[in-house]
Design goal:
four-stranded mixed beta sheet, alpha/beta, 119 residues
């Protein structure tokens, strides 16, 4: 049986601003890689990256990437707001029992992303 290992690239209009946003909101230390026209900062477990490349455009519609928060959804939302993000849907209980909570926000670049957590 084959196994899916998805890779998600989140487009950035302003690469440095986007990396700062994700570092601050998710308490990360993403390393920036610059190859001229293309730039990338990979997530710690190789799930994907923040990417800047000709033709990559942030979007609020389409595929939704969701991230586990390092502490609580409320704290992550506060950090998102203070770093240029906008809350679309506040912390909401997932209706399936025992599945935790989620929230939706627009990141500093205009991408809609999800937050996921148990608190």
């Amino acid at each position: 049986m084959s196994r899916l290992n998805p890779w998600v690239e989140i487009p950035a209009a302003d690469f440095d601003r986007a990396v700062d946003f994700y570092n601050n909101v998710f308490k990360l230390n993403l390393v920036k890689n610059d190859w001229g026209k293309e730039k990338m900062a990979c997530f710690p477990n190789d799930e994907g990256s923040i990417s800047f490349s000709p033709g990559f455009k942030p979007a609020q519609d389409g595929t939704l990437a969701s991230f586990n928060v390092p502490d609580s959804i409320e704290e992550a939302l506060k950090r998102a707001k203070s770093n240029g993000g906008n809350v679309v849907l506040p912390k909401t209980k997932i209706e399936a029992e025992g599945r935790g909570y989620f929230a939706l926000l627009i990141d500093s670049e205009g991408n809609k992303i999800g937050l996921y957590g148990n608190e």
